Structures are given as structure tokens and as C-alpha cells.
Amino acid sequence: MYEYSGAVHIHSIYSDGTGKIEDIAKAAFDSGLDFIMMTDHNTLKPVSDGYNRWINGVLVIIGYEINDLQNKNHYLAFGIDEVIGTYKELDNGELGCKLNAEDYVKQIKERGGIGFLAHPDEQRQHLPEHPSYPWISETEDYTGIEIWNHMSEWIEGMNESNKIDRFLHPLKSIVAPNERSIKRWDKAAEKRHITAIGGVDAHALKQNVLGFFEVEIFAYKVLFKSVRTHVLTDEPIAANSKEDYETGVNLILDALKNGKCFISNHYYGSAKGFRFFAEFRGITCNMGDDITNIGSPVILKVLVPKECRIRLIHNGVLVDEIIAMNASWNAEKAGIYRVECWQGDKGWIFSNHIRLNN
Ligand SMILES: [Zn+2]
Ligand SMILES: [Zn+2]
User: Fold this and answer.
1) Among 141, 164, 208, 263, which one has the highest count of C-beta atoms within 10 angstroms of its own C-beta?
2) Is the pLDDT of residue 124 over 80?
């Protein structure tokens, strides 16, 4: 398989980010990323402006982030060319889609797109200037969940005493995916396949910190060293022509749709080469796959680029934990299996599920 690492969930000057897409792509290239997934709020204008192409050595995928009239139920949509529904200006001057969340999620699926619940479990109340934007809708039509959102974790853990430290060291304070989102994901995935992704939610906002100096919070090049989503594809992605671009986008979106991906925090080391797979009757099955008829033995295997604390999770419950660079287990029970890799008490790599059916 071929592995490509990318940053998902990025805002540019097309909404409330401060960077131009070409400069964001340059920062991504310099950070060693293969692709970026842009998600400006409620707009696909970058598509009509021709930004859906290779830029500065990086494959740029243009999606968008939708919200409803309550500015809740944020949804990251990819694989469609036009914004759906009509919009209304909200009290704060931002836009809200007049469709309710169930409808926009459904319509994106019907148009062949894919989508992810964005930062679904925010619940902070301590920062009036940064309200939470949780997912509160009931729907089954989404592709997956953004279980890790850098911006969200960074703000949620901020208080008066650590504020300045957080501004100055935006990567140090990131520990692990949101626990409530992980629970939401494991529970929902027992019924059907649901992909987990990690997002940066990059804006590169400029903020005045101490009243006399302005810092760029979350400069894109800084954020690109944190939460990454790595996809695995059966074919290589080439960068020669417009057709290659379309093929590359389809390979990445298919991998995301099918759960052939994992999440890493690059701050704790490159996760390139991580693999979680199953061997069954001489066949290798990967994340996102379903294995049926488990009368025959199924061996789960994990390979990690450096020694770490590997945790095997079955149906949301921790079943084994070892410190190693690789591990294998006999999977006897039906259900969904995934692994987590930790460096001490910091989350490093989070796989998608492999499902075993009776
Ligand atoms: Zn959002
Ligand atoms: Zn966002």
C-alpha cells in the first residue's frame, strides 16, 4: 500500500483564516505533507477560483465546513462541487445554512460526497469569546467523525494561568483525541462503518497577547507539525496532469470513506510506516475492512515506527496494553478492533477499526 499524510480542516482567507491557499500549500510542503484538505466556512469559492489542483508540491483538496442557523452541527464536506442549500446571515455576521443538519448531511451523501462531524463534543463554557460548537443533531448519513481537533483541544484546556504558555507553545498542550468523541465513534461504529479523522482546524489567527505584542496563533507551518491524517491507497498518486489530480483526489477520498487511514500527532514523531492489519486465511485485511466467517483464526498485527505503548481496543474496551514496536493478537470475538499508540501519557497514533463478523 502507499501512504500519504495530510492535514485536514484548514481555513484560509476565503473565510476566517489569515493565509492564502498557495502559502498554506507551501507551508504544508515544507512540513513534509502530501495533501491538504481546505474547509472554509460555507463556501466552495476556491473551486471556481481554480484552487483544486497541485499547488507548491501539495495536492490541495477543496471541501467546506457547513453550520446551521444556530451555528452548531459543523460538518466537513468533500467531494462535491457546489455548496448545498441557501444561507442566512447570523447575528454575529457569519452565515448559517437554512437546511437542518440531518438534511445537509443527507444531501451531501446523495450527491456522492463524504462528510465528517467536526469537533462534535465541545462543551467549554469558561470562555465567552470562544463558545462551543457541538454536534447535537441525530443522523446516520455521515461518513465519519473528526475525533481529534487541535484548535478545539487547545481552547478547551485553556485557563487564565496557562493562557500565555498555550499561546507561545501551541503544540505542547495537545494530548489526545477528545474522549467523548472516541466514545461516540466506538459506539456508533458497532452498528456500521464510521471513519475517524484528525483535524487541525487551522486559522493562523493574529492575536494581541499581552496588550503590546501581536503573535500569530497557530501559524500554519506550526500546526502542520501536529495532528495529521494518513491515508493508505492501493495505487500511487502521481502529479503530472489534471487527470492525475482527479485520480489522486478520488484515491484519498475513497480511503477516507472506507477507513483506510490513521491519525497521528507528528509532534511526537513521524508515524510513517504505522500499519494495523489482520491475517485471515492467507489474506491480509486492512483498517476499514470487514472479516466475516471467523471460524478460521484471525491474527491482528500492528507495526509502529518506534517503541511506544500499544493499546488494543475491542468494542470500545481496552483488552491489552504492551510497550513494543510491534504486536500480534488472536482475535476470537466478533466486534470492532482498533489500536492506539502512546508516548508516555501523550497520544501519538490512532488507527481505524477492523471489523470481525461471526
Ligand atoms: Zn467548526
Ligand atoms: Zn473549522
Assistant:
1) 263
2) no
User: Cα 33–108–316 angle (5° rounding)?
Assistant: 65
Q: Residue 71 CA: which ligand is closest?
A: 1
Provide the H-helix boundaries in the chain.
21-30, 45-48, 101-110, 150-156, 163-168, 179-189, 220-223, 242-258
Question: Which numbered ligand comes closest to the C-alpha of 201?
Answer: 2
Which of 267, 294, 324 finishes a domain?
267
Task: Report residues near ion ligand 2: CB below 5 Å.
Answer: 65, 201
Q: Ligand 2 centroid vs 303 CA: distance in angstroms? A: 32
pLDDT for 266: 98
Q: Over the stretch 172-217, which tens digit does the pLDDT of each residue have?
A: 889 999 999 999 999 999 999 999 999 999 877 666 555 555 666 6
pTM of the model: 0.95
Q: What's the average model confidence in pLDDT over 157-174?
A: 85
Q: Is 65 left (phi over 0), alpha (psi -120 to 50) or beta?
A: beta
- pLDDT given for residue 208 in this prediction: 59
Q: How far is the CA of 216 from the centre of ligand 2 (A)?
A: 17
Tally of domains in the chain? 2
User: Which ligand has the nearest atom to the CA of 120?
Assistant: 1
Q: How far is the CA of 94 from the centre of ligand 2 (A)?
A: 13
Ligand 2 center–CA 11 separation, angstroms: 7
81-102 confidence digits (pLDDT tens): 999 999 999 988 889 999 999 9
Distance 311 CA to ligand 1 centre (A): 30
Structural domain for 196, as ranges: 2-267
Distance 21 CA to ligand 1 centre (A): 18
Question: Which ligand sits closest to the CA of 122?
Answer: 1
Question: What is the Cα 328 distance to its own chain's centre?
Answer: 26
Ligand 2 center to residue 191 CA distance, Å?
28
- Local confidence band at 234 (pLDDT 50, 70, 90 cut-offs): very high
**79 and 171 share a domain?**
yes
130 and 244 belong to one structural domain = yes
